[in-house]
């Protein structure tokens, strides 16, 4: 029983179940994509696991924009505009995201130095201030999945400043400021992607992934679509809810729109460099009016979804580099190598999921949650 208590994740039943569903789906898509590569790319299992798998990171971006947008709207609208508003927002966000990140990053740095995949700290110091993929391709030898957190952190830093300047310095109303910032970011980032593509001859699929999908300067607009959702839900609540069923089915269609390429081969490079992020984000956003109406739930599925949502940040941080590369690499060398392929691959697959979930629960309960408790006491 004590072992079970160590892994038990308690939660507040007042949580929005709909948002937990989206968060749990997002991390499932991420884990499913990472674990599918234990099987060969042409195998039935690989195709079965990946064919209906959506971009979990893109869903996380929209979800983050929706949640943070709601926080910023409440912080600025109807409140005196002070720098302390920004400071409190940053402190609360950084207590939520940075302790876990710096812990896992430091562990990976030490492991990389030990295995000599890096030789000096100067090679990786930019990871500590989220500049490794600000405008350049992220090198894959340390913490490749951290690219998306860098996008989030720059969003947390820049967007409140832009809103603050419009409200405090230029005397715009908060409502107008939110919309202006959202539209400007979406238009300017989309235009930048198009400009970069037009000046990039003979682009490859690997370059699309590293220089369009995984850079801060090309992805900030994805989060802003979630911000627009928060804006609509707050200021135009009736309209937001009125067409929720129609929007939900439109969202399903748009979310899977890019998969048509793999079936029919329609789209060219301009879609995958410039517009896929817009289409995906709008598709995911269309799900929110209906899904966020699911305020609560019950039963086994409800508990599992909620707990998966709660540990999702820890799952995101450890699943790929720490678990898949280092932990499973160790197990492969010392235990799994002698197994036949028919046994080794399923064992690797199941071990990946088990170690990731158990490790994430422990990280959440005994490191992430104490820091959030400290934040709630201090701020």
Question: Could you walk me through the main structural features you see in this protein, from its secondary elements to its overall organization?
Answer:
- The mean pLDDT is 92.
- It is globular and about 70 Å long.
- It has two domains: 138 residues, no CATH class; 237 residues, no CATH class.
- The two termini are 35 Å apart.
- It is 75% helix and 0% strand.
- It is mostly helical and 379 residues long.
- It is built from 16 helices and no strands.
- Helix 4 crosses helix 9 and helix 7 packs antiparallel against helix 13.
Please state the oligomeric state of the protein chains shown.
Answer: single chain
Number of strands: 0
Could you spell the SSE succession in H and E letters?
HHHHHHHHHHHHHHHH
- Can you summarize the main beta sheet? none
Q: Give the count of helical stretches.
A: 16
Shape call = globular
- Estimate the helix proportion, in percent: over 70%
C-alpha Rg, in Å? 21 Å
Quote the beta fraction.
under 5%
Low-confidence stretches: none
Query: Helix- and strand-based class?
Result: mainly alpha
Rounded mean pLDDT is 92
What is the terminal separation in angstroms? Answer: 35 Å
Number of domains: 2
Q: What would you say about this model in short?
A:
The chain is an all-alpha fold and 379 residues long. It is built from 16 helices and no strands.
Keyphrases for this structure?
16 helices, single chain, 0% strand, globular, 379 residues, mainly alpha
């Amino acid at each position: 029983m004590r072992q079970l208590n160590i892994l038990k994740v308690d939660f507040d039943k007042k949580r929005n179940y709909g948002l937990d569903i989206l968060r749990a789906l997002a991390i499932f898509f991420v884990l499913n994509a990472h674990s599918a590569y234990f099987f060969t790319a042409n195998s039935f299992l690989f195709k079965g696991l990946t064919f209906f798998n959506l971009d979990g990171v893109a869903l996380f971006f929209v979800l983050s924009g929706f949640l943070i947008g709601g926080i910023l709207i409440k912080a600025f609208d109807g409140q005196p505009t002070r720098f302390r508003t920004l400071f409190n927002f940053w402190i609360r966000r950084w207590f939520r995201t940075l302790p876990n990140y710096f812990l896992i990053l430091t562990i990976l740095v030490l492991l990389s130095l030990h295995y000599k995949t890096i030789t000096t700290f100067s090679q990786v110091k930019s990871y500590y201030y989220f500049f490794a993929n600000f405008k350049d391709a992220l090198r894959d030898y340390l913490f490749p999945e951290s690219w998306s957190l860098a996008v989030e952190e720059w969003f947390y830093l820049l967007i409140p400043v832009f809103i603050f300047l419009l409200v405090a310095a230029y005397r715009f109303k908060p409502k107008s400021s939110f919309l202006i910032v959202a539209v400007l970011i979406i238009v300017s980032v989309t235009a930048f992607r198009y400009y970069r593509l037009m000046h990039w001859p003979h682009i490859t699929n690997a370059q699309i992934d590293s220089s369009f999908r995984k850079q801060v300067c090309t992805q900030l607009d994805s989060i802003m679509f979630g911000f627009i959702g928060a804006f609509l839900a707050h200021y135009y609540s009736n309209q937001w809810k009125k067409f929720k069923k129609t929007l939900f089915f439109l969202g399903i269609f748009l979310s899977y729109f890019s998969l048509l390429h793999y079936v029919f081969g329609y789209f060219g490079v301009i879609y995958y460099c410039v517009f896929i992020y817009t289409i995906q984000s709008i598709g995911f956003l269309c799900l929110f009016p209906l899904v966020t109406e699911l305020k609560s739930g019950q039963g086994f599925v409800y508990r599992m979804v909620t707990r998966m949502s709660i540990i999702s940040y820890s799952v995101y941080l450890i699943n790929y580099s720490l678990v898949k590369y280092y932990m499973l690499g160790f197990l492969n060398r010392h235990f799994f190598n002698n197994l036949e392929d028919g046994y080794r691959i399923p064992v690797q697959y199941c071990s990946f999921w088990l170690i990731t979930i158990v490790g994430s629960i422990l990280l959440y309960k005994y490191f992430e949650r104490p820091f959030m408790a400290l934040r709630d006491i201090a701020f």
